[in-house]
């Protein structure tokens, strides 16, 4: 029995979408799933299972920040045998290569967190997305003419950082967006030999100050969920064929 997810084995699908906000998990389930069933409300971190395109899928809130993400991802992989997790979130753009409403496909996730320093000692581990899932998501987005940009994410520990200069350096090294969870997700997926991908819509631009309206955020978020779900359906087809 898992401590923070009040479900029994089998109630969670092998494929899970993880928004940070638990209400987004509910919205994903109610909007996209057939026959959604809520399996968790421990700490209000809602989780649902249903079907999409004939494939069982779940949507589980991760909370904000790597410690919270790591608790839920670990329990999903270890206690519920989840095979693939797609984080569906937002990021702030660091680079002129991305615009608000673009979706960043997180190829890698640099981090200032002490979590991987505790895990790897003096080695600076490079958390990375699952290539097959990343490729499937890129294919789906291209077919649907949705603007996606593959590149690096920066998983920061502090949203309100007292020293914003590091983001300029990271942008020079090809990092496109800042968010707060992908590095922990990618690291745990590697630990358990599972697949993970982070898709982040750009909600605000750190260089231009531009922000999306609530309406725009909703529309882009919807497009991103379709990309994530269709990529998972294709992954399932490829591995059950
Ligand atoms: N920083 C961290 N996380 C975020 C941001 C940001 O600027 N925007 C959206 N998620």
Automatic annotation (TrEMBL):
Superkingdom of this protein's organism: Bacteria
InterPro entries (alphabetical): DeoD-type, Nucleoside_phosphorylase_CS, Nucleoside_phosphorylase_d, Nucleoside_phosphorylase_sf
Top enzyme category: transferase
Keyword Glycosyltransferase assigned: yes
A single GO cellular-component term on record: cytosol
Known catalytic reactions: uridine + phosphate = alpha-D-ribose 1-phosphate + uracil
Alphabetized Pfam families for the sequence: PNP_UDP_1
PROSITE patterns reported in the protein's UniProt record: PNP_UDP_1 (PS01232)
BP-aspect Gene Ontology terms: purine nucleoside catabolic process
All residue ranges annotated as the Nucleoside phosphorylase domain in the record: 15-224
GO molecular function terms attached to this record: purine-nucleoside phosphorylase activity; uridine phosphorylase activity
The keyword Glycosyltransferase belongs to this UniProt entry's keyword annotation: yes
UniProt similarity note: Belongs to the PNP/UDP phosphorylase family.
PANTHER family per record: FI09636P-RELATED, URIDINE PHOSPHORYLASE
Listed name of the protein: Uridine phosphorylase
Organism: Brachybacterium alimentarium
Gene giving rise to this polypeptide: deoD
């Amino acid at each position: 029995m898992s401590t923070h997810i009040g479900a029994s084995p089998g109630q969670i699908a092998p494929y899970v979408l993880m928004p940070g906000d638990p209400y987004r998990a509910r919205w994903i389930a109610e909007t996209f799933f057939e026959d959604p069933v809520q399996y968790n409300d421990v700490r209000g971190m809602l989780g649902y299972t249903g079907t999409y395109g004939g494939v069982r899928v779940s949507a589980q809130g991760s909370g904000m920040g790597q410690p919270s993400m790591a608790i839920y991802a670990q329990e999903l992989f270890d206690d519920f045998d989840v095979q693939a997790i797609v984080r569906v979130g937002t990021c702030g753009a660091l680079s002129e290569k991305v615009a608000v409403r673009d979706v960043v496909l997180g190829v890698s996730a640099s981090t200032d967190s002490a979590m991987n320093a505790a895990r790897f000692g003096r080695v600076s581990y490079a958390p990375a997305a699952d290539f097959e899932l990343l490729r499937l998501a890129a294919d789906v987005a291209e077919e649907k003419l949705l603007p996606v940009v593959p590149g690096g994410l920066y998983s920061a520990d502090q949203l309100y950082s007292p020293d914003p200069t590091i983001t300029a350096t990271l942008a020079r090294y090809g990092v496109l967006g800042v968010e707060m969870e992908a590095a922990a997700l990618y690291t745990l997926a590697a630990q358990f030999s599972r697949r993970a991908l982070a898709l982040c819509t750009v909600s605000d631009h750190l260089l231009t100050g531009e922000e999306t309206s609530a309406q725009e955020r909703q529309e882009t978020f919807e497009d991103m969920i379709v990309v994530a779900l269709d990529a998972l359906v294709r992954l399932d087809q490829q591995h059950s064929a």
